[in-house]
């Protein structure tokens, strides 16, 4: 059986990557949002303490992990009243994004809607399930037949933050057509000039969790991309049905990672420290881009500067590659990204200073 999945977009960057790598001062790779700063000590200690765990872990995760999630969402994002039973750890959030339509039992004839400019894995997940993908313009309600609506504020790639009232409208529109709402909140810990809110806040949810899922990742907030650590929570009935399928399918977070996640979710200091590292890099890169003639749109939160030189995206990728800087063309995220590039803040301070120098001299 063959299934038509999109080409893996980063493969098409290979020529530009080669040009950027040939720069005498080396490449500054800002094309992927992969963390470069250390794993927090508190997490390393927790991981190291649990090497001797020969038994199978539970798919639902330890009670301590689920309570740590509930505590972190309350402290960090003002989400109160969650029941630890309605928390489910995931092997990073990408696998959940890719498999959620399938785990919800969606298939041919079902519509899954997501933003016009979006993380590519939403579409991959729809295709894996054999369902129908629909890209929505800003504020556009999901069409009849939509069974799942993805929200993503702060957005990858644009860094756009939706207000609580705009998210509440999206939730109401989804409920109107009977769609589940999955809110991908993996950049919630990185606000710059706007205050993102969780779909689970009462001003968005209307005080009801039915049909709502919040998808979280520790990759960016705690530098744990290498551990594969995420979770989903929200509507207890939906979470229970996901748990049932995931138990059968062996989609289990390794127990040492569960311990590491528990430690990460119990400590907020490292999250603040990491946020300040990214803020400092953003404060250097954004004015350098402006000086070099770029306009930076949205980018109110999250890890990316959504930038344009008012020319086709690939021309901008080429212009940057000649200066040894690698960025992702906006077309990776949807056809309407054709005049933007996505520039990540995930480089060491030394590499970021190099990029700034190349852009401004
Ligand atoms: C919007 C969005 N969702 C989900 C993910 C997946 O993150 P992870 O699998 O590391 O949790 C990413 C990663 O960059 C992302 O940008």
TrEMBL record:
Its cofactor is pyridoxal 5'-phosphate. Its EC number is 2.6.1.-. Gene3D superfamilies: Aspartate Aminotransferase, domain 1, Type I PLP-dependent aspartate aminotransferase-like (Major domain). This is Aminotransferase. It comes from the Bacteria. It is an enzyme of class 2 (transferase). NCBIfam families: DapC_actino. One of its GO terms (molecular function) is pyridoxal phosphate binding. The keyword tRNA-binding does not apply. The lineage of its organism: Bacteria, Bacillati, Actinomycetota, Actinomycetes, Pseudonocardiales. InterPro entries: Aminotransferase_I/II_large (IPR004839), LL-DAP_aminotransferase (IPR050881), NHTrfase_class1_PyrdxlP-BS (IPR004838), OxyQ (IPR019880), PyrdxlP-dep_Trfase (IPR015424), PyrdxlP-dep_Trfase_major (IPR015421), PyrdxlP-dep_Trfase_small (IPR015422). Belongs to the class-I pyridoxal-phosphate-dependent aminotransferase family. PROSITE patterns: AA_TRANSFER_CLASS_1. Transmembrane segments: none annotated. It holds the Pfam family Aminotran_1_2. Residues 27-359 form the Aminotransferase class I/classII large domain. Keywords: Aminotransferase, Transferase.
């Amino acid at each position: 059986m063959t299934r038509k999945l999109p080409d893996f977009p980063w493969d098409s960057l290979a020529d530009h990557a080669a040009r950027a790598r040939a720069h005498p001062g080396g490449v500054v790779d800002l094309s992927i949002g992969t963390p470069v700063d250390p794993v927090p000590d508190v997490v390393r200690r927790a991981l190291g303490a649990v090497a001797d765990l020969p038994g199978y872990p539970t798919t639902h995760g330890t009670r301590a992990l689920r309570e740590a999630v509930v505590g972190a969402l309350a402290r960090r994002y003002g989400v109160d009243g969650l029941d630890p039973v309605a928390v489910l750890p995931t092997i990073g959030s990408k696998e959940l994004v890719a498999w959620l339509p399938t785990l919800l039992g969606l298939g041919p004839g079902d519509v899954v809607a997501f933003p016009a400019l979006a993380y590519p894995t939403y579409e991959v997940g729809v295709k894996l399930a054999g369902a129908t993908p629909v890209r929505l313009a800003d504020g556009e309600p999901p069409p009849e037949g939509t069974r799942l609506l993805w929200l993503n504020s702060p957005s990858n790639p644009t860094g756009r933050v939706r207000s609580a009232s705009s998210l509440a409208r999206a939730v109401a529109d989804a409920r109107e057509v009977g769609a589940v709402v999955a809110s991908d909140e993996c950049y919630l810990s990185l606000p710059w000039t706007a205050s993102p809110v969780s779909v689970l806040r009462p001003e968005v949810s209307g005080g009801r969790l039915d049909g709502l899922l919040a998808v979280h990742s520790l990759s960016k907030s705690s530098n744990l991309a290498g551990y594969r650590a995420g979770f989903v929570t929200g509507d207890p009935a939906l979470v229970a049905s996901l748990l049932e399928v995931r138990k059968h399918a062996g989609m289990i977070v390794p127990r040492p990672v569960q311990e590491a996640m528990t430690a990460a979710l119990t400590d907020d200091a490292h999250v603040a420290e990491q946020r300040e590292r990214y803020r400092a890099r953003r404060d250097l890169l954004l004015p350098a881009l402006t000086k070099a003639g770029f306009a930076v749109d949205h980018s109110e939160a999250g890890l990316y500067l959504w930038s344009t030189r008012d020319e086709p995206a690939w021309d901008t990728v080429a212009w940057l590659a000649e200066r040894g800087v690698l960025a992702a063309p906006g077309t990776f995220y949807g056809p309407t990204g054709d005049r933007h590039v996505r520039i990540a803040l995930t480089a060491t301070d030394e590499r970021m200073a190099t990029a700034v120098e190349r852009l401004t001299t």
